[in-house]
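Exercise 7. Predict the joint structure of the components listed below.
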Amino acid sequence: MHLSKIKEITERLSPLFSPIEATVLINAERVLNAFTKLGVRESDFHGTSGYGYDDAGRAKLEAVYAHLFGAEQALVRSSILTGTHAITLVLFGLLRPGDTLLSITGAPYDTLHGVIGIRPQTGSLQDWGVKYEQMEFLATGIDFADLGAKLAKDPSVRVVYLQRSRGYAERSPLSVAEIKQVVDLVRSITPQCYIVVDNCYGEFVETMEPTHVGVDVCAGSLLKNLGGGLAPTGGYIVGTSLALKAIEARYSAPGIGGEIGPNPEGHRLYFQGLFLAPKMVGEALKTSVATAYLFAEAGFSVFPSPEAPRHDLIQTIRLQDPEQVILFCQQIQAFSPVDSNVRPEPWAMPGYDAQVIMAAGGFIQGGSLELSADAPLRPPYDVFLQGGLYYESAMVTITRALDAMLMATK
Ligand SMILES: *Cc1c(COP(=O)(O)O)cnc(C)c1O
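Solution:
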């Protein structure tokens, strides 16, 4: 029953899958070009201990990342623990007391509220005397006139900050084309300020990254797109040498920078995950499109719609109440490959304002290129679904979860 349904919608959705497959093809070639141009070798997979000086594999991995992003330099480390940690290093590296951080895509992702000091927190940027301002992200996108006016009258703006994906917010993700418009405007007014992009969930969704259109720095998590479902942990930062020098001083210590940082387990899974990532991202995107289609057909409102062009992995489904949110996440978990016997419950997860429930029956703790669903327990009761290492398996989970939900609400 499930399988014939999956076969049927897969055929029906093939016109929507073909642009995704075209992107996978281009990104597969980009990755292969980077690996061959830089000469990735089996010996690059070996790890190092202690200080990690002269770690050739680490240097090669970072060179591959820089090349793929059209960036001058990269910092790709297992010791960058999460996306939040990567972005924190960027902000603390680039901002000084008296500077202003200007977010132009509304409130940043929840876990950054404590980092910035939007939610008071010891050690936040605000604690260090960094000011924060925010422009709301309109339904029509970025308010360019307002941005131009702000930059022209406030010379303290040191970092213009954009979040590519929608996170937990009710907004559209940014396309790389829109990011280019921001770069052009910001450069024409204040050439000296840094443009920083939270790139989480955006990598390989298009055939270019924000750094290809002139952004100074992009950062994100290896538990998402670029880890390819294999990287066991880690984060990355790519950008200009000028910016990376300041960020690396914060990563380890001033004067030492990125020269240290061992990876005792070795680098193979980081290379192999990156190699697979374009395909895994394509599978996740197809899963999102098909999920949107199935839930819309069942009468739920979904965002984006199945037909909409994709700029990140996230599929939102609007449910009716907290009970339905909990049921949905529990059903996804129940049909996942790992920990299917676990019943997720809402909890006060560190870094989030509302209680959050998460279904994460994957191989890597918190790995969200694997099929995962999460939701803050607050109106409008949207659940955020992302990942699915490969389409067929993810769709088995999703069709079963949908059926169980429809049965329960009958
Ligand atoms: C996941 C995510 C982050 C960082 O989250 P971590 O759990 O710290 O890796 C930041 N911004 C966005 C938009 C995200 O999706």
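Discussion. The first strand starts at residue 73 and ends at 77.
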